[in-house]
Design goal:
Layout: H1 10-18, H2 26-36, E1 41-44, H3 51-65, E2 73-76, H4 80-93, E3 101-104, H5 110-122, E4 126-129, H6 131-140, E5 150-154, H7 156-159, H8 162-172, E6 180-185, H9 190-197, E7 204-207, E8 217-223, H10 226-239, E9 244-248, H11 252-264, E10 269-272, H12 278-289, E11 295-298, E12 311-316, H13 323-330, E13 340-346, H14 351-361, E14 366-368
Parallel strand pairs: 1-6, 1-7, 2-4, 2-5, 3-4, 5-6, 8-13, 8-14, 9-11, 9-12, 10-11, 12-13
Helix pairs in contact: 2-3, 3-4, 6-8, 13-14
The structure holds adenosine-5'-diphosphate (ADP) and magnesium ion (MG).
């Protein structure tokens, strides 16, 4: 199949040609016709398989076809960086269609707020927003969402997770009840699915490899005490050259400490976390995107949706608290049919958390022995019995 088979408006097809999008990915092939038919949809497909274009293209096509001028589509996402990235993707696809968009996210100064307010009152076609910032505007009373036809939650399970669910519920009260609602993610736990159905009317469902890591990612894990982790990073980076490396840690403090240590030993590393000014966050991400910075140490701010070319290696400095986040963290590599490596460091107390991840992905991740000079790590001995039979604990580690 070819993108031209969708018979998009010529101005949209011109954008796809310019971006060298030729063959739709499986999720695009399945989702685009359903979205074009105005049905509600819950769509689950692996990280890096083109979910953004899957929801943007049918919306942009409808805007072009009907020459719509009003604020037509609201996309809600969990982080500022993702809002910005999707806004930029819209500008790419819509280059020849004339559709307009605005990212609405926190952290900017008063001038930024005014720009956002202007966009929300004068009407741009597509708003891409983080929930908190959008609520601030909604509370002021000037936002008109009565012409919204499409509500899209990207990273939907995250959006309907505890932290955001109340905001989302409030935001929907500002929208027409007759609308199309679309949910996208690489993970969709059953509890979230149930909750999601409340926002939707008789939704279609697409499930391509639910809770499965991206195909091109080779996973490994090291059992290492916290005191061994920095040496291990050095060893891994010494063994092979990677153009871009993304290291995740669960807390701001760990991110700051690790960044300081890597910087001290002369590595080209930067850090990103929520304590930075928004301007700094964007600068750091830009320098990582354009390869000026080789190593980025990040909190889970960057685990969802962020699309950066050529990240060859993801390291989980600790085991993520949420098993789903593991799939998203390691999904920052091996995007768009490329390949990548993901290593997770498991200390003595994170073992059970890691076992939950192995259960979720239904796969035992290879435990790689530490280099001899780093010393003995903890023994892998998670306390609860393995939840799935596909688990073979007796297999000796490969040497
Ligand atoms: P997901 O949201 O599923 O994680 P993205 O939408 O971020 O994935 O897409 C991952 C990458 O693949 C992006 O860089 C995007 O431009 C690229 N991409 C998506 N669809 C296609 C396609 N049909 N042809 C070529 N590249 C594509
Ligand atoms: Mg995405």
């Amino acid at each position: 199949m070819n993108f031209s088979d969708f018979n998009f408006e010529q101005s949209l097809q011109d954008g796809l040609d310019a971006m060298q999008f030729k063959t739709p990915s499986p999720i695009q092939e399945l989702a685009i016709p359903i979205i074009s038919s105005q049905k509600d949809l819950i769509a689950v497909a692996q990280t890096g398989t083109g979910k953004t274009a899957a929801f943007l293209l049918p919306v942009l096509n409808r805007l072009a076809q009907n020459n719509i001028q009003s604020t037509n589509t609201l996309i809600i996402v969990p982080t500022r960086e993702l809002a910005l990235q999707i806004d930029q993707a819209i500008q790419g696809f819509a280059y020849f269609t004339g559709a307009t968009s605005q990212a609405i996210y926190g952290g900017g100064d008063g001038a930024v707020f005014e720009t956002e307010k202007k966009a929300l009152t004068q009407g741009v076609n597509i708003i891409v927003a983080t929930p908190g910032r959008l609520m601030s505007h909604l509370n002021m009373g000037y936002v008109k969402f009565d012409q919204i036809e499409h509500l899209i939650l990207d990273e939907a399970d995250k959006m309907l997770d505890m932290g955001f669910v109340d905001d989302i519920a409030k935001i929907t009260t500002y929208l027409p009840t007759k609308r199309q609602t679309l949910l996208f993610s690489a993970t969709m736990p059953p509890s979230i699915r149930k909750l999601a159905q409340k926002l939707m009317v008789d939704p279609e469902q697409i499930n391509i490899a639910v809770s499965k890591p991206a195909e091109g990612v080779t996973q490994g894990a090291y059992l290492a005490y916290d005191s061994q982790k920095n040496k291990l990073i050095k060893a891994i980076l010494h063994e092979k050259e990677y153009s871009s490396v993304l290291i995740f840690a669960s807390t701001k403090q760990k991110v700051k400490d690790l960044h300081r240590d890597l910087y001290r030993i002369g590595l080209n590393a930067k850090a990103i976390h929520s304590e930075l000014e928004q301007k700094e966050r964007e600068e750091v991400l830009r320098s990582f995107r354009n390869k000026q910075t080789q190593i980025l140490v990040a909190t889970d701010i960057l685990s969802r949706g962020i699309d950066i070319e050529d990240i060859g290696l993801v390291i989980n400095y600790d085991v993520p608290n949420d098993a789903e986040d593991y799939i998203h963290r390691i999904g920052r590599t091996a995007r768009a049919s490329s390949k990548g490596v993901a290593y997770t460091f498991i200390n003595d107390i994170d073992q059970q958390k890691f076992q939950k991840i192995e259960a979720l992905i239904d796969k035992e991740v290879e435990k790689i022995p530490l280099p001899k000079y780093i010393g003995e790590g903890p023994i892998y001995n998670p306390k609860s019995p393995p939840p799935k039979k596909s688990f073979s604990k007796s297999r000796p580690p490969r040497r």
